[in-house]
Design goal:
about 160 residues, single chain
Length: about 160
C-alpha cells in the first residue's frame, strides 16, 4: 500500500482565524489608509457620513428646505417650484435617507459575511474530521492488505508443497 496520506493544514486557515470575517466596517477603516493623511481623511469622511446619514438629519434638512418654499410658491413660476423640489427638497432630504438605507444594507452584508465565515469554519472542522476518518480507514485498509498478502503467501507456500 502506498504511504499513508499526511494531512497538512492550509496556511489560509490560520490567516482566516487571525483576520476574522470581512466586514463593511472593517473595509471602511482600512480603505486607502496607508498614510496618516489618508487615515485622517477617512476618519473625517466617516464621521460626517455617520452624522448626515441619519433620519434626524433628513428631518432637519426637510425643515431647512421649507424655509425657501414660500418664496418658490410666491414666485408663481413653475420652473422655480420644480427647481425647488428637485434641487432643494429632494437633494437635501433624500441624501441622508439614502445613506440610512446604505447603512442598513451594509449591516445586513456584515451579518451575511459573519454567517458565511462561521459556516466556512464549520465546514473546515468537518473536513478535519473527514481527514481523521480517512486516516483510520487507511490504517484499516493497510491491515486488510497485510492480511491478504499473508494469506496469498500462505496459499502460494501450500501450493508449492503440494506440487
Amino acid at each position: 500500500m502506498p504511504d499513508a496520506y499526511n494531512y497538512s493544514q492550509h496556511p489560509r486557515v490560520t490567516e482566516r482565524e487571525i483576520k476574522g470575517p470581512p466586514t463593511v466596517r472593517g473595509a471602511a477603516v482600512t480603505l486607502h489608509a496607508d498614510s496618516a493623511m489618508a487615515r485622517f481623511n477617512n476618519k473625517i469622511g466617516l464621521t460626517i457620513t455617520k452624522s448626515v446619514g441619519t433620519m434626524w438629519a433628513a428631518y432637519g434638512f426637510a425643515v431647512i428646505t421649507f424655509v425657501s418654499l414660500p418664496a418658490a410658491i410666491m414666485s408663481g413660476q413653475p420652473i422655480i417650484i420644480i427647481s425647488w423640489i428637485a434641487q432643494t427638497f429632494l437633494q437635501l432630504v433624500l441624501l441622508p435617507i439614502i445613506i440610512v438605507g446604505q447603512n442598513l444594507q451594509a449591516a445586513a452584508s456584515d451579518e451575511r459575511s459573519a454567517a458565511t465565515y462561521e459556516d466556512a469554519g464549520a465546514i473546515l472542522e468537518e473536513a478535519k474530521q473527514i481527514q481523521v476518518h480517512l486516516e483510520s480507514q487507511d490504517a484499516a485498509i493497510g491491515t486488510l492488505l497485510a492480511k491478504i498478502q499473508s494469506l496469498e503467501e500462505n496459499i502460494q507456500r501450500q501450493q508449492g508443497k503440494a506440487v
